[in-house]
Amino acid sequence: xxxxxxxxxxxxxxxxxxxxxxxxxxxxxxxxxxxxxxxxxxxxxxxxxxxxxxxxxxxxxxxxxxxxxxxxxxxxxxxxxxxxxxxxxxxxxxxxxxxxxxxxxxxxxxxxxxxxxxxxxxxxxxxxxxxxxxxxxxxxxxxxxxxxxxxxxxxxxxxxxxxxxxxxxxxxxxxxxxxxxxxxxxxxxxxxxxxxxxxxxxxxxxxxxxxxxxxxxxxxxxxxxxxxxxxxxxxxxxxxxxxxxxxxxxxxxxxxxxxxxxxxxxxxxxxxxxxxxxxxxxxxxxxxxxxxxxxxxxxxxxxx
Length: 304
What we know:
Helix content: 25-40%
CATH topology: TIM Barrel
Structural class: alpha/beta
CATH class: Alpha Beta
CATH architecture: Alpha-Beta Barrel
């Protein structure tokens, strides 16, 4: 049988070798239960668990803004590289407030210029804390304006810009995701899909992967309880992550990771798959990280 050029290219894109080259795997290492207070300990133990790429938050690295070479030396000695460094800490994150727009741009462009020195290809951001009244239509309009401006300026700096939907923030649910994605430039404002937060906010991460496709530049990979598969039926208020965790290492059954990977293989997606675990109350974070790495390698057949 002779394959058409289209069939040949589709088969090549779906091959294990091609998939391995498309996926880059990292880990976010602020896991509570042992990693949250010592970022360099978390990097060392993540490396021991088999990871080569790490993601973290700016509050750990503000003191290195004027001495990046010292940070570069530290992570080189550990044997890891940055996926990205997220916003947070003292940075301005009230994206819904037009009066804070200039400070938002200043803070985030400073961070972009810092992480660019470490070879990062994108900035991933969280939005600010959710107000009791939720996120209004006017809030979303204001957020879209600043996201478009950030996206334009960050693109000019040579990086991509991705917005992370996260429970308990201004940017949490399906309506907010759809509104922001429709109101922003798809070539300058991308999406970070967190499998745990998407699930617990009532959405199916497989369907969201299918819907957003190439607009996703990074996944945060964490699992949930099996009963939440396809989207939790009830929204959870913020919980005590060490006493009542809702996110788990990969393989507990609440997220259809093979389904996500099948969709990504279908569209020949390229980007970051970043393991994340908010807390590890039942075992040391290094052990939880190793469980997730083994799942990625054995079940998803992706090299870490």
